């Protein structure tokens, strides 16, 4: 299983998608813009067990905010949305006000449509993200991808019912490992965030769930096998909230 992957952006996307379909019972392909969603649906829409969802990546909002109306339309047709969110890091500071607007519009649309499962980017902006989610109860289920906030923010997110998708790259720094270890175990699902996320200089593949389990095991004081079973059970639980024709 992989709950956050940019499958369409691997150099050999079609082959990687087909291999993901062979190896994974579920792969969530989050697109980064409405146009990418359209193109990717055309090229990879036939691949089984791969869920393709519309999004507008916060790092692209500065250039692509004009695609927001398309995003809001696309959300009508899908059970899940992503990648959306807010990036508060220095490089994207200038677009923060627009990022907030775009994210809030997507969350609000999800609420109007009865609730969706959202894959959310929150780097340097967890507070902003949670504030907007709190304003729109009924938006559905939030999955915070590669969470790098504080412990207090993580606890607030947990109380709001958020899930966390975590991949091998989250363990590459000491701070990342420490945060991963503290995440509520029953709300963690695997992700790859490939091909952007890397381990040992190579892009992480969508079938990295076993590797993620290995990395969690010492923190959870269990075997890699048990960690894998826990991630899998969580994934199945979250999948039940996503209504899609697999
Ligand atoms: Zn991503």
Kindly describe this structure.
By secondary structure, the protein is of the alpha/beta class. It has a single domain, classed as TIM Barrel (Alpha-Beta Barrel), CATH 3.20.20. 43% of the residues lie in helices and 17% in strands. The protein has 10 helices and 10 strands. A 5-stranded parallel beta sheet has the order 4-5-6-7-8. Strands 1-2-3 form a 3-stranded parallel beta sheet. Strands 9-10 form a two-stranded antiparallel sheet. A hairpin with a 2-residue loop joins strand 9 (198-199) and strand 10. The longest helix is centred in the middle third of the chain and has 17 residues, at 96-112. The radius of gyration is 17 Å and the shape is globular. The structure holds zinc ion (ZN). Zinc ion binds at residues 4, 6, 30, 83, 193.
Which characteristics define this entry?
binds zinc ion; 246 residues; 10 strands; alpha/beta
Q: What average pLDDT do the residues reach?
A: 96
Helix content: 40-55%
Poorly predicted segments: none
Spatial strand order of the main sheet: 4-5-6-7-8
In terms of structural class, how would the helical and strand content be classed? alpha/beta
Give the SSE string.
EHEHEHHEHEHEHEHEEEHH
Query: How large is the count of helical segments?
Result: 10
Named at the architecture level, the CATH assignment is: Alpha-Beta Barrel
CATH class: Alpha Beta
CATH topology name? TIM Barrel
Question: How far is it from the N-terminal to the C-terminal residue, by CA?
Answer: 13 Å
Shape: globular
Q: What is the number of independent domains?
A: 1
Q: What's the total count of β strands?
A: 10
Name the CATH superfamily assignment: Metal-dependent hydrolases
The bound ligands are: zinc ion
Characterize the biggest β-sheet.
5 strands, parallel
What would you report as the Rg, rounded to the nearest angstrom?
17 Å
Strand content: 15-25%
């Amino acid at each position: 299983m992989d709950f956050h992957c940019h499958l369409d952006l691997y150099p050999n996307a079609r082959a990687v998608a087909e291999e993901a379909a062979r190896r994974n019972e579920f792969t969530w392909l989050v697109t980064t813009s409405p146009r990418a969603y359209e193109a990717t649906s055309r090229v990879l829409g036939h691949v089984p067990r791969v869920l393709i969802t519309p999004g507008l990546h916060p790092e692209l909002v500065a250039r692509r905010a004009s695609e927001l109306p398309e995003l809001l339309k696309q959300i009508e047709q899908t059970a899940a949305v992503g990648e959306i969110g807010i990036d508060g890091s220095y490089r994207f500071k200038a677009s923060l006000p627009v990022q907030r607007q775009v994210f809030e519009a997507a969350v609000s649309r999800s609420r109007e449509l009865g609730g969706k499962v959202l894959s959310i980017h929150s780097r340097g902006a967890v507070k902003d993200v949670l504030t907007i989610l709190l304003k729109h109860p009924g938006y559905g289920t939030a999955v915070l991808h590669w969470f790098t906030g504080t412990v207090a923010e993580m606890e607030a997110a947990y109380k709001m019912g958020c899930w966390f998708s975590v991949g091998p790259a989250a363990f590459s720094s000491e701070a990342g490992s420490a945060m991963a270890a503290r995440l509520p175990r029953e709300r963690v699902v695997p992700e790859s965030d490939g091909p952007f996320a890397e381990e040992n200089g190579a892009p992480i593949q969508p079938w990295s769930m076993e590797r993620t389990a290995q990395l969690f095991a010492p923190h959870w004081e269990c075997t890699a096998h048990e960690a894998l079973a826990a991630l899998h059970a969580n994934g199945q639980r979250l999948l039940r909230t996503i209504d899609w024709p697999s």
